[in-house]
Task: structure prediction
Amino acid sequence: MMIRLSIDRFEGEQSNIAVLLSDAGQQIDFPRDLLPAGAQPGEILAFSIDRDLAATEELRAETKKLQDDLS
Result:
């Protein structure tokens, strides 16, 4: 799934939070250091969001092993 968000502004003590807005007006706080270098308010960002089922299963197996080891 591809979504587009605009950078509305930067907030926080050191402007380290990017406030992103969806087309529907939903606000998302996002770490500024994860944005592309030089990203500025008013720019549009494209995000691809996918489920990683292989990583999910790997984490599930690791968690189960840790739980079993504690039992």
User: Anything to note?
Assistant: The chain has one domain: 2-70. The helical segments are 53-70. The mean pLDDT is 96.
